[in-house]
Design goal:
This is WD40 repeat domain-containing protein. InterPro entries: Haem_d1_sf (IPR011048), Host-pathogen_enzymatic-act (IPR051200), WD40/YVTN_repeat-like_dom_sf (IPR015943). This protein has a domain at 63-184: YVTN repeat-like/Quinoprotein amine dehydrogenase (Methylamine Dehydrogenase, Chain H, 7 Propeller). It has one helix spanning 2-21, and strands spanning 35-40, 45-49, 55-60, 67-70, 76-80, 87-91, 97-101, 107-113, 118-123, 128-132, 138-143, 148-153, 157-162, 167-172, 177-183, 188-194, 199-204, 206-207, 210-211, 214-219, 224-230, 235-241, 244-249, 254-258, 264-269, 274-280, 283-288, 293-297, 304-309, 314-320. It has a four-stranded antiparallel beta sheet with strand order 3-2-1-30, with no helix packed on it. Strands 4-5-6-7 form a four-stranded antiparallel beta sheet, with no helix packed on it. Strands 8-9-10-11 form a four-stranded antiparallel beta sheet, with no helix packed on it. The protein is mainly beta. The protein contains one helix and 30 strands. The N and C termini lie far apart (62 Å).
Length: 324
C-alpha cells in the first residue's frame, strides 16, 4: 500500500512538472487586427497593444525568450533565446506553437531572408550563422567571429556583426560562404542597412568603461569605415523612413533624428534605458526597458503623444499593420 501511494504521488508530481514545462495556448488575436507587441524579458511575457494604445491581450511564457521577429505572413511569431533549447513558431491567430526547431541553446538573433526563402539564426555557442529552410531543416552553417549577433540582409548578402569580436562578416547568399570581412568596433549592437546608399550603420555599447558615443558608418562598396556620427551614448537601434533616420541611444535615453544626409535635426530624451524602436500607425514606437512603457512619438516633431504601460523589461518590438 505504501509503495502504491509512493508511486502514485511520484506520478502526479511528474505530470504536474511536465504540464508546467509545456507552453499553454495563448489568447489568440484575430487575423486582421493590427498590433504592436513587446517581448518583456524580465517576466517572460508579451504585451499586444492596438493602434489606440489599448491592451489587446498578454501572453505569459514558461520559456526565457529574448528575441524574435514576425514572419512575412503576418501571423507567425518566431521566438528564441540563448537559454531555450529551440526556436518556437507561434501562430498569433491560434495562440499555439505550430512548430519548434530543435537548435539547441545559443540562438541570439534571427532574420528571414526573402531572396533565398530561408531563416538565418545567429548561434553564440557555436559562433555560427545557421540557415534553415521552410520545413525547419538546417541546410547550411557558416563560422563567424566570436558571438555573432546583429544581422541585416539584402538580396545578395547577409551582414553579421560579432559582439565579442571585431569583424563584420559578409556572407554571399548564393554560395553561403564568407566573401569579405570588415574591421568593426567590439561590442557592436544595432544595425541599419541602407541599400540605395550602399552603406551600413552599426551601433554598440563600447568596451570596458568607455561607452561608445558614435554610430559607425561603413561603405559596402569599399568595405571600409566611411564616417562616424556622434550619438551619445550607446546607440543600439535604428529606424529609417521618408522623414529621416532615427537612432536610439540607451546610455543617455536619447532619440536622435538625422536627415538622409546624416545631419542631426532633432533629439529628445525618451523613457528609461530604451532598447528598441519601431514604427506603427504613423508613430514612432520606443520601448523603455526600465520605465516599462511604450512611447508613441510624432516622427516630425519628436513629441511624445502617448504612453502605454507594458510588462517588465520590454526589449523587442513587433509590429503588424495589416495582414494581406
Amino acid at each position: 500500500m505504501k509503495i502504491y501511494n509512493f508511486i502514485t504521488t511520484c506520478t502526479i508530481a511528474i505530470v504536474i512538472f511536465l504540464t508546467g514545462c509545456q507552453e499553454k495556448k495563448q489568447t489568440p488575436i484575430t487575423d486582421n487586427k493590427p498590433f504592436v507587441a513587446t517581448l518583456n524579458v524580465r517576466e517572460n511575457s508579451m504585451d499586444f497593444v492596438d493602434e489606440n494604445g489599448e491592451e489587446l491581450t498578454k501572453w505569459n511564457f514558461n520559456k526565457m525568450y529574448t528575441g524574435g521577429f514576425l514572419h512575412t505572413d503576418g501571423d507567425t511569431l518566431v521566438l528564441y533565446g540563448p537559454e531555450a533549447d529551440g526556436v518556437d513558431f507561434y501562430s498569433v491567430k491560434t495562440g499555439k506553437i505550430g512548430r519548434t526547431i530543435k537548435t539547441g541553446k545559443g540562438i541570439v538573433n534571427g532574420t528571414y531572408i526573402r531572396s533565398i526563402s530561408k531563416i538565418a539564426f545567429a548561434d553564440k555557442n557555436r559562433n555560427e550563422i545557421r540557415f534553415f529552410d521552410g520545413k525547419g531543416r538546417e541546410t547550411n552553417s557558416v563560422k563567424t567571429d566570436n558571438y555573432p549577433m546583429a544581422m541585416a540582409a539584402d538580396d545578395q548578402h547577409l551582414y553579421v556583426a560579432a559582439f565579442q569580436g571585431e569583424r563584420l562578416s559578409v556572407i554571399n547568399l548564393n554560395t553561403i560562404k564568407i566573401t569579405d570581412e570588415i574591421a568593426i568596433p567590439s561590442s557592436s549592437v544595432g544595425m541599419l542597412l541602407r541599400e540605395d546608399e550602399k552603406e551600413l550603420w552599426i551601433g554598440g555599447h563600447g568596451v570596458g568603461n568607455k561607452a561608445k558615443s558614435f554610430i559607425s558608418v561603413f561603405s559596402l562598396k569599399d568595405r571600409a569605415l566611411k564616417e562616424e556620427i556622434p550619438a551619445p551614448l550607446m546607440p543600439v537601434d535604428f529606424y529609417e523612413n521618408k522623414q529621416g533616420i532615427y537612432a536610439l541611444s540607451h546610455g543617455t535615453n536619447m532619440l536622435y533624428r538625422f536627415n538622409h544626409d546624416k545631419q542631426l535635426i532633432q533629439k529628445i530624451e525618451v523613457g528609461a534605458n530604451p532598447f528598441s524602436i519601431n514604427f506603427f500607425h504613423g508613430k514612432l514606437i520606443v520601448a523603455g526597458f526600465d520605465s516599462e512603457e511604450l512611447y508613441w512619438i510624432d516622427p516630425d516633431s519628436l513629441k511624445i503623444e502617448m504612453t502605454t504601460k507594458v510588462g517588465k523589461g520590454p526589449f523587442v518590438i513587433f509590429v503588424r499593420e495589416k495582414v494581406k
